[in-house]
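Form P-L/3: holo structure prediction, ligand copper (II) ion.
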Amino acid sequence: MKGKWIIVIGSVLALLLIGSIGSFFFLSRIGVGNLNQGGMGSMMNSSNESSSDTMMGMENDGMGHATNIKLKNSTEKENPLGLPKVLKPDQEDKESMRYTVVAREGTTRFFANGDQTNTLGYNGNYLGPMIELKKGKTVSIRTINQLDEPTTFHWHGLVVPSQVEGGPHQIVNPGESKDVTFKVEQNESTLWFHPHPMGKTASQVYKGLAGLLYVKEVNLKTNLPQKYGKNDIPLILQDRQFNKENSMNYDDIEKSDGALGDTLVVNGTLNPYFDVKYSQIRVRLLNGSNARNYVVKLSDGASFEKIAGDGGYLSKPEKVRSVALSPGERTEILLDFSKHSIGEQVSLITDGVTITKFKLKEKQGRNSEITNVIQKMPKLNDADLKPDRRLTLFGMGKMVEINGKTFDENRIDIKVKQNRTETWEIYNKKDMMGGMIHPFHIHGVQFVVLERNGVQTNSRERGLKDTVAVKPGERVKIRMTFKQKGVFMYHCHILEHEENGMMGQLKVD
Ligand SMILES: [Cu+2]
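OUTPUT (holo model):
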């Protein structure tokens, strides 16, 4: 009996010792009382290599979150997939194009029998239009803020000077407008735009401020599908938490490690289907969620081709059975319906939940093999693998930091000379609970992912990127050239982590 008590007291003392040696995170997590599966899963997954064709260690959505909210299949009747409108230029000539983008309040009815819910949108009630930027042209955009709070218009992935790229310093106050002009010099790619004001980014994106930005190379010789809304469709993936009136309220949800919801909303549509009329469909996936990771597959388990990442095409199409997207990332894939019969349907799914049903109605066109090498990657030497800088991402919840610091808008963390090429090693340091994936994003550049944990990344990751998922314990090397001047942000794209200070400033001059 006495021995038992010694063991119990000894265990308590040992726990206290661990607690005091360990970080505050440990105690705060225990305080929440959730030793959730996600936390454990992330620890077990952390040694997986990205070469794994299917998982990339991202199968457990919401891993490491204080609450692990799983996605549910929708019980709503199926709805035709909403497609963002193509924004008409106010003016266009050989050298230039001009657009107007308005951030405004709106209302949206997501459920057939639900209430209208207050949302935000660009030029509409929820989300925004697709804006096409033609490479080689000078684009002017009049940005107008009709919200009752400050916002910015951030062009995510666009390689332009910081003065026009809409970071936290480019505030547009309520009722005001700002004109930005830039030359489009990068390759054909699927970018996006969203707000970036300090303290309001996460809530404004959650309420609906996000839109598509396609860079288009008019003279690009390609046999890829490119009929917008017909054989070339975007899927903006977002998870939302609806209350019993079927409305949503950002302020009401638990979100210390990022807002998660149990309902998947695709282009603003619940339970969507798309009528396929072509034998080959190009799908541009955007993870526009605040915090959720997705692993996207076909419901019949078939393989498909990945053709592009964040910043444009891969050097050749890659056959895959799944693609993983952390918040902010984009991936373009080709779906082949040539061997399916008219009337059949197949879905894109994530974690067993339907993203969009594809119903085969017609099979126009034929599948031409994509043979052209569409984006050449720079040649690399061994010396390029030596990091010029090391960044350590650490923490969870409100206690997040980069290299031991939280964001300070009056501090420049990194200075780089214009046109310098650097290799950065991004290290996601585990905490005692295992940690979580941090999607690392840098403004104003596109980079190449060189290595994960010392292993050269497989070719499908070798397209240009602006956001990269860094798993707990992982070291990811990226390499980029800083072509544009100004003060740029780098940060975790879990928007609540960014708001809590997992962000730094890079000055290029
Ligand atoms: Cu993070």
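COMMENT: The pocket of copper (II) ion is lined by residues 438, 492, 494, 497, 502 (CB under 6 Å).
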